Amino acid sequence: MAAATHLYAIAIGSNRSHARHGRPPQIVEAAIARLDQEFGLFDASPIVLSAAHGPAGRDFANAAALVESDLNPMEMLARLKAIEREFGRRSGRRWGPRVLDLDIALWSGGKVRSRRLTIPHVELARRSFVLQPLLAIAPDWRIGSTAVRHLAARLARRAPRG
Fold it and tell me: Would you say the pTM of this structure is higher than 0.70?
């Protein structure tokens, strides 16, 4: 019997240049290409620039990609961490600058809660740098009873006006 194919929404971010991959927007583009090579890309959002939160310092380039895979969430997490290392990511300070960050935002199997992985991420509804890219490629994907489009609209209404 063949393994079930799942759809994963992967949040992609970079805020540190890399000698081989270039500046953060180029790193995000290369990461999308790498996800396509590894899993088969279903769709990818445009790249958006986002202000850094916390001690990360530099602004981020962010995107989201939808990929298909028969991996379970823990296997997918391990593959994503291996891709981060391929791109030069090294462990360091939490919330610090990073060459590449790949996170499982959502998956077609629903919720996951373990010590190492929570899907959807507990802060997803408050992170415009994830919701905005997801809005471009998966506006109707539901997080609980609420669609991505509605979470993004709520967050936009709460955002301070400049």
Answer: yes
Which residue in 69, 67, 73, 78 sits closest to 3, CA to CA?
A: 69
24-82 confidence digits (pLDDT tens): 999 999 999 999 999 988 999 999 998 766 555 678 899 999 999 999 999 999 999 99
Residue 50's SS3 state is strand
**Of the residues 89, 127, 142, 149, which is catalytic?**
89
Active-site annotation holder among 85, 101, 113, 157:
101
103 is known as an active-site residue = yes
Q: Where are the domains of the chain?
A: 6-158
Q: Catalytic: which of 16, 20, 43, 103?
A: 103
Catalytic site includes residue 98: yes
Among the four given CATH numbers 3.40.1160.10, 3.30.70.560, 3.90.78.10, 3.20.20.80, the one describing domain 6-158: 3.30.70.560
E strand spans, 25-122: 41-44, 48-50, 60-69, 101-107, 112-113, 118-119
Task: Catalytic residue, from 98, 126, 140, 157: name it.
Answer: 98
